[in-house]
Amino acid sequence: MKKMLLLLSILGMVSIISFAASGTTAVSTPASAMVVALVNGEPIHANTLQNAANIGQTLMAIRKVNLKMYQLLLSSKEGTDFLKAYNRSVLNDLVDSVLMEQIAFKDYNIQVTEKEALNNVKEQVAKMLSSYKITKEQFSQYLQSQGYGDIKQFEENSVFTLKFSMTVDLLKKAVTSSATVSNKEIKQYYNANIDSFKTPKQINVEHIMLNSEATADKVLKEIKSNAITFESAAAKYSLDVQSKDKNGDIGWIPESKNMPAYEVKLFSTNIGGIVGPVKTSYGWELFKVIGKKSASIKSLSESSAEINKTLLSKKQEKLWNDWLNSVFKKFKSSSKIKIMI
Description:
Strand order of the largest sheet: 5-4-7-6
Number of strands: 9
Mean pLDDT: 88
Order of helices and strands: HEEHHHHHHHHHEEHHEHEEEHE
C-alpha cells in the first residue's frame, strides 16, 4: 500500500488519530467538541488539535520500532511532560493559523470557506486515486486499517489544514503583489553572476572497465586490429554493468580544474581517439571520445526569464517576511488569545 502512503505527503494533510487534550470540561461535553483555545473569540476545538498533533499515530509508529521509548513516553513523568509540551506547541501553531485567517479577512477581504476547502480536498484525493490507479474503496480500507477512519472522515478532518493553506496562498499573493523586477535589475544580476550562465567544454566518452593491465592491453590490441569495435568490446568485456549495454557510454564530462591526467588527455584527443589503458580507482580502463561540445554562455535574452523568476522570488520572500515581522506580529500582540489546556 505504498501508493496510499504517498497521499499523505502529497496533500500534506493531518491524520485523525485521537489524543485527549488535558484539562477539565463538563462531563456532558464531548471530548472532540471541547474548546482548547479562543482566538479573538474564535474557538479551536480538541478534534482540530488532535488531527494536527497526530500524537496517537506517532506513538503507534514509535512502538513498532522502539518499544522501550514508547513505554518511557507513556509511563514516565518526563515522557508525558514532553507529549504535553509538544501538544501545546502544535496548539500555538494552530493559534497562528487562526490569526492568519482573521487578518487575511480583516485587511484583504480574503476568506476561504470550509466548503471550498472540502472541495479542494476531494479534488486532490480524486487526482491521487486516478494518478496511482487505486479505487476509493481501496484507499478507504487502507485509511481504516491505519486508524484514520474512512475516506469521508479523512476528507472532513483535512479541511482545517487545507483551509489555512489556501488562505496563506491567497494572502501571500496579496502581500507580495507589489514585487516587480526591472530590465536593469535583470541585466545587473546577469553581469554579476556571469559565471553561472557559462557551460564549460564537454566531451562524450565511452569506456571499458577491466580487472588488469594485461587484459586491457589485450582488448586494446583487438580493437586496434579491427577484430572488434570499441563498442562491441565494451559489451563483451567491460565490468561496468551500468554502461556495457550502452556501448560503454558514460555520458558527457565537463572540463574542470584539477582533472586527473587521463581526463586532460581525453579533452585534447580527437573524436574517435582512444586513451588507455589507464589505472583508476575502478580498475584498468580504456576510453574513447565520441563527441565534443565547445564552451558556451547563455545570452542575456536567453537567461532573462530565469533571472526574473529568481529575483522576483527573492523580493516576494522579503515582502512576506517583513509583513510577518511587522503587520502580523503587531496584530498577534494586540489579539485576545486564551489557551484552555
